[in-house]
Design goal:
Elements: H1 4-14, H2 19-35, E1 45-49, H3 60-68, E2 77-79, E3 86-91, E4 96-102, H4 107-111, H5 114-120, H6 130-141, H7 145-148, E5 149-151, E6 155-156, E7 168-170, E8 177-179, E9 184-186, E10 189-191, H8 193-196
Helix pairs in contact: 1-3, 2-3, 2-6
Length: 200
């Protein structure tokens, strides 16, 4: 079993305690083990989340981010929105990848928990009693890995390298810094998209 402190630290990152972020944390940690790699401090890994948008279980993604170090800020995580609690983690150095998905073995226990009944009634997770938060978290955290995760075989996967653009330019309109590739030219002056007044 993983160190509980890792779980606690992930919840600080995520903002609240819930089963889906705990599942994402376990999925991310399992991917690191399967690939034989460490958490990405730069861009050695890339994660592809299969979660979608606007559903409660998207919290899975924050668990994955915390475990793998693949973050939207570093642009080494992306979405392939299928509404699934699954992630593909790619080791860019060795051109290997693995897909991890959440198994629905504990689905009914999760759904029938006091936490989820309150969430279904639109109670924010932070307003649910602490013991009820932990009850549903422990369903995931304390379960055998085979009851929580489906771990695919490691397979060959090569990502095309992307160039990291470093140059920032000051917008002549608002004075804010903008990545050079997002600048527009209006009346011969460099301006941001907002100041340019057009998107193209």
């Amino acid at each position: 079993m993983e160190d509980k402190q890792t779980l606690i630290d992930m919840f600080k990152f995520h903002g609240h305690k819930c089963w889906a972020s705990a599942a994402g944390l376990r999925a991310g940690l399992a991917a690191l083990r399967a690939l034989g790699v460490e958490r990405s401090g730069a861009k050695s890994l890339h994660a592809v989340l299969e979660t979608g948008y606007h559903h409660a279980a998207e919290c899975f993604g924050d668990g994955v981010q915390y475990a793998t170090g693949c973050t939207f800020g570093k642009s080494n995580i992306s979405k392939d929105p299928k509404g699934k609690l699954a992630v593909r983690v790619i080791d860019k150095k060795n051109n290997k990848a693995v897909r991890i998905s959440f198994k629905p073995v504990l689905r009914e226990k999760i759904r029938n928990s006091a936490f989820m009944k309150k969430r279904a009634s639109a109670v924010p997770p932070t307003e649910i009693p602490e013991e009820e938060q932990w009850e549903v978290v422990y369903l995931i955290w304390d379960a055998y890995e085979e009851d929580v995760l489906s771990i695919g075989k490691v397979y060959d996967c090569e990502l095309a390298p992307t160039e990291e653009l470093m140059r920032m330019v000051i917008c002549d309109g608002c004075g804010e810094m903008v990545a050079e590739s997002y600048m527009r030219v209006v009346n011969g002056k460099p301006v941001c998209i907002d100041c340019a007044g057009y998107d193209v």
